[in-house]
Amino acid sequence: MSEVWDVVVIGSGSAALCAAIAAKEKGSRVLIIEKATEDLAGGNSKYTAGAMRFVYNGNDDLIPLLQNPDDPRIPNTEFGQYTAEKFGADLLGFNGGRPLSVEQRDLIGKSYETMRWLADNNVKFEPIYSRQTFEKDGKYIFWGGLTLAAEHEGVGLVEAEMRAFKAMGGEIRYDCAAVDLIVKDGRVCGVNTRSASGETADIEARAVVLGCGGFESNAKLREKYIGADWAKAKVRGTPHNEGIGLEMAFKLGAQAYGLYDGCHATPMDLHMPEYGNLNIPHEQRKNYRKICYFLGVMVNAKGDRFVDEGKDFRNYTYAQFGRAVLEQPGHFAWQIFDSKVDHLLYEEYRFSDAHYVEADTLDALIEKLDGIDDKDAVRKTLADYNAAVNADVAFDPTIKDGKNTKGLSLPKSNWAQTIDTGPFKAYPVTGGITFTYGGLKVSDQGGVVHENGRDIPGLYACGEMVGGVFYEGYPGGSGLTSGAVFGRRAGYGAAQFATQTVAAA
């Protein structure tokens, strides 16, 4: 081991890149190592919509973050506000009765300053007009507390962060998989690596940051921690997040932390590839998602509805409902819509590779629902639903409109319209997994905490590897923000440790 880096970051997704940028900001010599080749690098971040959830008090807070603050739509846009209290309440809604964790409070408290920090590093954002607004009275009305995403979504976010890192003098090596951590005198001081061809190398470092994701791409670990159904999940992102970072940390006595049977999921096209596909344009890749269920109904293989499709804005339900779909018989469901909402369906439903069936009558549509043997059960479900729709309340997709059903054992709480106007469409979906919630205990300096309660010297973690951030669900856009918040923290912590190590030498 001839050369010594101040900080080595394992992984090249957004969290890892934020750690690398933060460490460079403090003057460290930083190397990123990435298992994938350059074209497939970027971790799960590249497969996301690039949206980030954070605290803001109004339009003025958002202008400094924008790629194009002179967009002519801005004066006619009502972004509203998203307070710390609201962010906390949204997280609590998925905590299963748990209070806000230390990690969640840090996520909330550091969210806006981290967005400003990214913007200061020329990582800018644009309003999500296509997915987070409805037009009303000549205004663009944002809903759900989610307003900004990176230009060109997750791919654009990773590319912008990589440009910032390289502009600061950072280096990256592709086809360089971490195999194990090097430890001397109780301190992590490097990484054993291997290329795809089997060539090995040791890289020496004063500090190492684990930013290499969870275990969502490892079917055996999904089955072990989350349940047997999850061996069948489609992996929305990279095939490389197989849990190696966790395994390396556990070998050193790291403390497991968080909800290991929890994960971020979403309804996905049943016939999508087994893994995300970066070989198609990002505009198409995102279209395997199918998250307009709130405008219709979902039925399982028995012909039954199984969730309250209108429980809340889809930002707050898609992670839960992706799990619910996967846990249905046969691991699939059908999303059913009529022509009244066809113009409101997101572009993913018009994607050239979107799978669906269509018919002029509801009866004819039902006959086309493969995987459902009892077609009469579907007819009854839809007839009961239609009869229960509250006709006295107006449909309004810009708010939780209270247009509900009455008398059903499983209600639809909002946006309940009769499904009665042809032509009708139905889309087959399954559950797709994006990232896992179980991770490591991390200190307020980003250090990985040992089972004895002390930081493991020289070892830091960020991104999916930080446990305690999410539990039984996920408000959309929080994952990338969490990656940035804890990535920045880990980079600062690792840089400080590296500086102290040099001083003590």
TrEMBL record:
Gene Ontology MF: a single term: oxidoreductase activity
Pfam family, one: FAD_binding_2
Domain of life according to the entry: Bacteria
UniProt keywords, alphabetically: FAD, Flavoprotein, Oxidoreductase
Annotated FAD-dependent oxidoreductase 2 FAD-binding domain residues: 6-478
Cofactor(s) this protein requires: FAD
InterPro entries (alphabetical): FAD-dep_OxRdtase_2_FAD-bd, FAD-oxidoreductase_2, FAD/NAD-bd_sf, Succ_DH/fumarate_Rdtase_cat_sf
Listed Gene3D superfamilies: FAD/NAD(P)-binding domain (3.50.50.60), Succinate dehydrogenase/fumarate reductase flavoprotein, catalytic domain (3.90.700.10)
PANTHER family linked to this entry: FAD-DEPENDENT OXIDOREDUCTASE 2 FAD BINDING DOMAIN-CONTAINING PROTEIN (PTHR43400:SF7), FUMARATE REDUCTASE (PTHR43400)
Protein name: FAD-binding dehydrogenase
Organism of origin: Georhizobium profundi
